[in-house]
Amino acid sequence: MESFSVRRFGAALVALLGLVVLATAVFRFSLDLGWVDAAYRALLTVSLTGVAANPGGAGATIFSGVLVLASVALFAYVATTLVEVIARGVLLDAYGERRRKRTIENLRHHTIICGYGRVGRRVASELRGSRMPYVVVDVNADALEAAGADGSLVVHGDGTEDADLRRAGIDRARGLVASADSDEINLFITLSAKALCPTLLVVARASDDSAAKKLRLAGADRVVQPYSSAGLQMANLIAKPQVAAFLDVVTTVGGAEFNLEEIEVPASCQAAGSSIRTLRVRDQTGAIIVALRKRDGTFDTTPSPDALLEAGDVLIGVGTNEELRKLEELFAPEELVAR
Question: For residue 24, what are the domain limits?
Answer without folding.
Answer: 2-103
